[in-house]
Amino acid sequence: MSKLVHSVFFFLICFPVSVIADTETVNKTTSIDTFSIMNVLNMVMGLVVVIALILGLAWVLRKYGRLPNNNLVDMKVLGGLSLGTREKAVLIEVDNKRILIGVAPGHIQTLHVLDGSSSASFDSKLEKAMENQN
Predict the structure, then answer these.
(1) Domain co-membership, 92 together with 119
(2) Angle at Cα 90 formed by Cα 87 and Cα 91, nearest 5°?
(3) What is the spatial distance between Cα 114 and Cα 122, in angstroms, rounded to a whole number?
(4) Beta strands per DSSP E along 10-66
(5) pLDDT at residue 18 is higher than 70
(6) What number is the average pLDDT over the span 11-31?
(7) Cα 67 to Cα 69: distance, rounded to the nearest angstrom
(8) Domain encompassing residue 15
(9) Is the pLDDT of residue 28 over 60?
(10) Looking at the structure, do residues 80 and 59 belong to the same domain, yes or no?
């Protein structure tokens, strides 16, 4: 009995239903005109929707930036200055220290390191100078 069940199961899996179905109904469903106006219009509208989705996603990614990364280093690029066609001076801030670096093709060099306390000392000097004027 189990061999009969296995053979019927094997027969149903190996042979698609369309082979067993009536050939007249299959011929009626496959005789659709492929280049009708409605089919072409449907295809064009689908293409427009896909292109609109791609452009919309590109706009969202550009507007909201990249995914947040979990960097442990607190680093910011404060500014940059072009020194030539391929050379640049860049001011970065890392762990409350400002570092001026020179960037050239294939070479990066530290030019100067500023402590983060320099801005606080400037504030205190400015306050003292204003007090002395009064």
Answers:
(1) yes
(2) 160
(3) 13
(4) none
(5) no
(6) 54
(7) 6
(8) 2-64
(9) no
(10) no
Structurally, the chain folds into a number of domains equal to 2
The 10s digit of each residue's pLDDT in 76-99 is 888 888 888 999 999 898 877 889
Examine residue 7 and state whether it is found in any structural domain, yes or no: yes
For the chain, give the mean pLDDT: 76
Same domain? For 105 and 60 the reply is no
d(CA 29, CA 19): 14
β-bridge mates for residue 98, sequence order: 93, 114
Is 69 domain-assigned?
no
Q: Residue 117's pLDDT is what?
A: 58
Q: How far is CA 90 from CA 86, 106, 109, 116, in A?
A: 13, 15, 10, 17
| Residue 94: per-residue pLDDT | 85
Strand ordering across the sheet containing 97-104: 75-82, 88-94, 97-104, 107-115
